[in-house]
Design goal:
Ubiquitin-like (UB roll); 20% helix; 97 residues
């Protein structure tokens, strides 16, 4: 008998995202069909502010002012499927200006 265990991803928050939440990391439960967009919209509902700007409404991708990495790989596609123990880092581009 196989028990259905819940899967979790770790969301690491940096820069303004850490200030908004007051947290360095958040553990989110995911099901097998969860994508990055699911997590981002959940965070946007919960925390509002800059989380609402992560997804570019025109392209549906991660906007250029935000850097999202999953397990160390830079991700722009919000339909990226999430797996148990994925580590998602949300930050802003360093430098520039």
């Amino acid at each position: 008998m196989m028990a259905m265990s819940t899967s979790h991803v770790k969301v690491l928050l940096h820069a303004n995202f850490r200030q908004i939440t007051g947290k360095k990391e958040i553990i989110e439960e995911v099901n097998p069909n969860h994508t990055l967009a699911n997590i981002l919209s959940k965070l946007a509902k919960q925390y509002d502010k800059d989380f609402n700007k992560i997804i570019d409404p025109k392209t549906g991708k991660v906007n250029v002012d935000t850097v999202i990495m999953i397990n160390g790989k830079n991700i722009r596609q919000t339909d990226t499927k999430l797996k148990d123990n994925d580590v998602i880092m949300i930050t802003v581009p360093v430098g520039g200006g």
